[in-house]
Amino acid sequence: MPTADHIPAPLPAALPAGADATLLIVDDDGPLRNRLSRAMERRGFAVTAVESVREGLAAARGTPPAYAIIDLRLADGSGLDVVGALRDARPDARIVMLTGYGNIATAVAAVKAGAIDYLPKPADADAITAALLDHADALPPPPENPMSADRVRWEHIQRVYEQCDRNVSETARRLRMHRRTLQRILAKHAPRG
C-alpha cells in the first residue's frame, strides 16, 4: 500500500490556480502527521499541523483554513469538535475525517458535523487530495482492500461496546446477542482484513 509521502505522476487532482491553499492537519500520530504534512506541502498546500483538539480548535477559530484533515480520535477528545468549530468559522471549508475506527455511525456523525468525506487509516495522500479537491457528486471508487465482513462486524461490536462504557450486559442487550457469545467475541483479537 502506498505511504502518505508517495508522490505519483501525475497528481490525481490539482489545486485551482490562485485558490486559498491553507490546510489544517489535526492528528495525534506524530510520524503520520509529519509524513502527511510533507506530502500535502508537495501538492501545493500551505500546511498547519497540530496534534490535539485544543490546538485544532485554536487554529480553526484563529485563521480558518480552506481545507482540513482531521483524525476522529485524538488523545484529548474527538476530532468532531474541531470539524464543528471549523464549519462555524468557515462554512465553505472542505474537511476530510480520518480514522482507524471506521464504521457507519462515526461516518454519519462526521458528515453531519460538516466533513465532506470520511477515510479509514491508513489513507494515502493521493486519496486524501482527491477527497479534498473533488467537487463532483459522483461516488468514489471502491476501496482497493475493503474490510472483510468479519472485520466490519467486529468493529461494530467494539464501537457499541465502547459507547456502552465497556458494559458487557448493556452491549449484549443493545446488539440483541447472548452475553456469553459477546464475551467470547470480545476476548478474541480483531479479524484480519
TrEMBL record:
GO terms for molecular function: phosphorelay response regulator activity; transcription cis-regulatory region binding. This is Photosynthetic apparatus regulatory protein RegA. InterPro entries: ActR_PrrA_rreg, CheY-like_superfamily, Sig_transdc_resp-reg_receiver, WalR-like. Keywords: DNA-binding, Phosphoprotein. Residues 22-136 form the Response regulatory domain. One of its GO terms (biological process) is regulation of DNA-templated transcription. Gene3D superfamilies: 3.40.50.2300, Homeodomain-like. PANTHER family: REGULATOR OF RPOS, TETRATHIONATE RESPONSE REGULATORY PROTEIN TTRR. GO terms for cellular component: cytosol; protein-DNA complex.
